[in-house]
Amino acid sequence: MDTVVPTLFRGTCVTQPALTAVSPASPPLAEAILDTLIHRIGKDAQAALPHDWLAATILTVRNDIIERWMASSKEAHAAGAKRVYYLSLEFLIGRLLRDAIANLSRTDEVRDALTSLGVDLAALEGEEPDAALGNGGLGRLAACFMESLASLDLPAYGYGIRYVNGMFRQRIDNGWQVELPETWLRHGNPWEFERRESNYRIGFGGEVIGDENGDCHWMPGESVEAVAVDTPVIGWRGARVNTLRLWTARARDPIRLDRFNAGDHEGALAASVRADTLVRVLYPADSTPAGQELRLRQEYFFSSASIQDIVRRHVQYFGDIRTLPDKAAIQLNDTHPAVSVAELMRILIDDHSLDFEGAWDITKATFGYTNHTLLPEALESWPLPLFERLLPRHMQLVYAINAKVLREARTQGQDDRAISAISLIDEGGERRVRMANLAFTGSHSVNGVAALHTDLMKQTVFADLHRLYPDRINNKTNGITPRRWLFESNPALTSLIQEAIGDAFLDDATKLADLNPFAADAAFREKFESVKRANKVRLAHHLREVMGVRLDPDAMFDVQVKRIHEYKRQLLNILETVALYDQIRSNPDKDWTPRVKLFAGKAASSYHNAKLIIKLANDVARRVNADPAVRGLLRVAFVPNYNVSLAELIMPAADLSEQISTAGMEASGTGNMKLALNGALTIGTLDGANVEIRDHVGADDIIIFGLTADEVAEKRANGYDPREAIAASRELQQALSAIKGGVFSHDDPGRYAGLIDGIENSDWFLCAADFDSYAQAQRDVDARWADRAGWNASAIRNVGGVGWFSSDRTIGEYARDIWNVM
Fold first, then answer.
1. Does the N-terminal or the C-terminal CB of the chain have fewer CB atoms within 10 Å?
2. How do residues 770-821 score in pLDDT, each as one tens digit?
3. Per DSSP, which regions of 468-526 are E strands?
């Protein structure tokens, strides 16, 4: 008799002989998984569905992880080790099963065990939801850093928020972005552990009362409980298991029974709703006063809980709060947790009775601050009345810190203009609290994330603070974990590299440089191209299933996948796509390079122009893909809901990596590193880490175009007129005219008039200025593609050249230069 046993593929089941028990020849792990399925999940093999097998597998593998986790914690405690605490509003960790078993060197064991049970591991991995804990590069960097900290055997905690719905799930309806709630926690999360004992009271509002001794006591007007939820983070080869501690919020009194019984049923639950709002959504729109307040509440909520937790642990283990800098290194990932500086000062002064000077010395010695942007509008600041109303004690401390800093600046002879720039309070127009200045002054180290970015920090946004504290700014170029972005996402390429150069690169990514001589090996190039094509077939199959679009895997896959923002210049890419479309139709006899243009990324909910760019990309795709005159030479697709799992499909399949931001505006980028590591050639400006990628792979194996950061600054300073650039470029004129004239928007001919007017009249992001250089660079790319041997050689040298961009190297620099833990 046959019965249904799940062979997993998209949650379907097929008929197979019944498995009433594990075969005597089955691996012990299979027995453990089946036992977990029965006794923890409550299903037998015949009744189990895909999500049951996923949960059973995770819970079984988790047992080994828990033992290593406990051992790691005990070792750190016994050694009195200094711990790293990484505070980030985002942790884009992605799916964890494949990452965990790969880092534990158990992938083959788990695959064999599941196969004996009639379950396919690859399909099972696809059942796991992506954790909705981040949006883009900032959050993915934090996830890579946590993995590298464990891989380098460094005791560490990551601190963030356990978002129930994340940023949003992106759906494309008629070309428009639609934001839907991300429901990754709908069925629970088998990786996490709630720590009921680790809960802290987080206050808001109220007033500060002084006593007869001059001491201050903050009496919050309302409060919530922050409760810790821990996820293990496994290092390479199981070197260490660290903790990602995410905070969830609960009302101290979940229901007001008096109101409920009086008939005010909704009002009775108001406190619970208010607490739940703190952990619902990442980056709630802050275009309204209510949105701004929620963002500040979120940032203080997770910062306060984290600092309280760090201080409690230190006092419990080491007793003397004055030794905090010797045993704790707190890194602020951008300005979101900057209020932690004031919170630590509050705890040291109000709870531990230190004087201001002593508390300030401890605070500066404990904190480091990583800056991720040169955009002044992206350096967070809060309206002073809002900050003071929500955090009255912290406002007092910010004023006290500001007074101290400004006295130092006056002593050094800084003029009024510099004093104004250094101040923690922006007095121009609406008074605002500058969080970047608070983080800068409250840290002993302030780092940029690429060499160019760090130099520009000193010259632009932090020029005056740099003059005041000339030894504080340093560079730590970003990195990515090769485990996730090569070994796991591109196993075929990993195996090919192993055949060529051995296994040393698995433990030291810089050993990838040994691959460079194989760029001259014709047989190796052939194998390399075969791996790339197989990855392109895999991606094409996926996109046909989810989007219905047909892509030719023999065409060049030209990829721009990142957060949608005007400075990242997806619009420049679209303009050149429109120009190319026009040229293909006008010159059908020319030997055009077949291209697939892939876009992906989310636009912030309130960012009108970014959402309009998504619509334009989809409108262009609809027109181009339906035009028989193009003859399949150009295909365009905007892939919805870009996340880590989608990136793991796209990165290995990409031939060309679009890194085309306006020079001087991208801090670093990490997508550029992931794509190069997987054998894509970069076309880009000399911006962010592109500069260092060029240095490591060689100028001949990267395609650079456009203005430099210095030239961008000079052009803006001299009164740049985009009309001159447009008048000099026939292709650009035609592209702008077609878009503005409604060629791609027959249903609404004026849809893109404002977007194009922005280029014609101001062009702050210099799309017009760089267009011709970019278009010529793309034709150079065509010529390179025609020489497939040369293209593949360049791609191989890219893989060999970017091992330096491992997050292990980055974390090693942080550990030695900033945290003093190596």
1. N
2. 999 999 999 999 999 999 999 999 999 999 999 999 999 999 999 999 999 9
3. 473-475
Nearby residues of 491 by Cβ (< 8 Å), 6 or more positions away: none
Q: For residue 560, report the phi and psi dihedrals to the nearest 5 degrees.
A: -130, 100
How far apart (Å, rounded) are the C-alpha atoms in residues 648 and 464?
42
CB 765 within 8 A of CB 563: no
d(CA 142, CA 87): 9
Q: What is the dihedral of CA 362, 365, 367, 372, to 10 degrees?
A: 150
Distant-in-sequence, close-in-space partners of 174: CB < 8 Å, separation ≥ 6: none
**What does the block give as tokens for 114?**
């599941």
Q: Which tokens hold the place of 446?
A: 């302030």
Residues acting as catalytic residues: 372, 562-563, 568, 670, 674
Interval 451-505: pLDDT, tens = 999 999 999 999 999 999 999 999 999 999 999 999 999 999 999 999 999 999 9
Q: Please state, in angstroms and rounded to a whole number, the distance separating the CA atoms of residues 409 and 415.
A: 9
Burial (CB < 10 A; 0-12, 13-18, 19+), residue 761, is exposed
Q: What is the DSSP letter of 345?
A: H
729 burial type by CB count under 10 A (0-12 exposed, 13-18 middle, 19+ buried): middle
pLDDT at 10: 34
Amino acid at residue number 388? E
What residues form DSSP beta bridges with 627?
A: none
